[in-house]
Amino acid sequence: MITAKIIRHRHKFHHYINDDLKSVKEETFFKIVFSEPAEMDLFKEWIKQHGGEYDYNKNESRQEGKFPAVPMFHDEICWCDIMTYYLMHVAGYAFYSTIHPYKGEVYTKN
After folding, report:
1. For residue 53, what are the contacts with CB-CB under 8 A and spacing of at least 6?
2. I need a labelling partner for 26 at 20 to 30 A (CA). Which of 13, 47, 80, 109 fits?
3. Are the CB atoms for 69 and 84 separated by under 8 Å?
4. Vertex 100 angle, CA 94 and 101, to 5°
C-alpha cells in the first residue's frame, strides 16, 4: 500500500509596537508527502504539464511555485484543492483518514 499525506502548517505572525500587540496574521501552507518517492516526481510532472510549478521551502515550511491551470478551479484556488484533486482524480488514491487536530489528510492506494 502506498500512502500520501497532505499536511497543513499554520504560521502566526504577531505585530507589536512597544510591547503592545497591534495585529495577528495567520497564514496556512500545505505540504504533500508520499511514502513512495517516485510518486512525488509524478505529482510534480503533472503540475508542470498544466503550466504550474510545485516547490516546498523546507526552511520556511511553506509551498512555493505557481498554481497549475486546472479547468475545474477558476476562483479561490488553493494548494490543498490541487493536491486533493490530483490524489483522488488523477493518481487513483482514496481518502483514508484525517490527521488530528485538523493537520491534514491521509490517502492510500494499492
Report:
1. 47, 65, 66
2. 47
3. no
4. 135
- Can you tell me which residue has the cell 513512495? 36
CB 25 within 8 A of CB 16: no
Dist. CA 79–CA 47, nearest whole Å: 11
Radius of gyration of the CA atoms of the chain, in A: 16
**What is the C-alpha to C-alpha distance for residues 70 and 97, in angstroms, rounded to an integer?**
25
Domain residues of the chain, as ranges? 2-109
- pTM here is 0.82
Provide the 3-class DSSP secondary structure of residue 86. Answer: helix
Q: How far is CA 85 from the centre of its chain?
A: 11
In eight-state DSSP terms, residue 89 is I
Task: Give tens-digit pLDDT for 5-40.
Answer: 999 988 888 889 998 998 988 888 899 999 999 999
Nearest to 63 by CA among 102, 32, 105, 34: 32
Number of Cα atoms under 13 Å in the Cβ half of residue 18: 0
